[in-house]
Amino acid sequence: MRAVLTRVSSASVIVDGEVVGAIDCPETGGLLALVGVSREDTAVNTAELEAKIEKMARKIAELRILEGEKSVEEAGAPVLVVSQFTLYGKTAKGRRPSWSDAAPGDAAEPVIEKIIARLLARGVHVETGKFGAMMEVASVNQGPFTVLVET
């Protein structure tokens, strides 16, 4: 599993001309979390997959990357979670990325949903994109500050 976490003052997702998820947090900041799931993630046993899901949710909630070295939980900051299979694009050869390392949608979607559920269970305000849709993602970065998280 892989996530790109960007500290933002606002972020939104539009699908078919309609806002489906948005955060606006100029005082505390928040996170735009682009989350990808690999075939390797979904090929493990259930206990290993659940541990990876828990670790990703914990990292998103607890990493001290907001202003003043606070975490999302400490700051009461929101998170916009957007599924992003392209995080597993391979570009070493040729001019066209290969998506063979990305988990198929029917395997990845439940993983993304479980990460969201774990964040909600921690009391994090979560907004989302729409899995599998063509999304327009907008963000106003703070810093800019972006980190890559892998589990």
From TrEMBL:
EC top class named in words: hydrolase
Q: Name one GO molecular function term.
A: hydrolase activity
One Pfam assignment: Tyr_Deacylase
| Alphabetical list of SUPFAM superfamilies matching this protein | DTD-like
UniProt keyword annotations, A-Z: Hydrolase
Query: EC number(s) in its UniProt entry?
Result: 3.1.-.-
Q: Which InterPro entries match?
A: Daa-tRNA_deacyls_DTD, DTD-like_sf
Name the NCBIfam families on file: D-aminoacyl-tRNA deacylase
> Which protein family is it in?
Belongs to the DTD family.
Name of the protein:
D-tyrosyl-tRNA(Tyr) deacylase
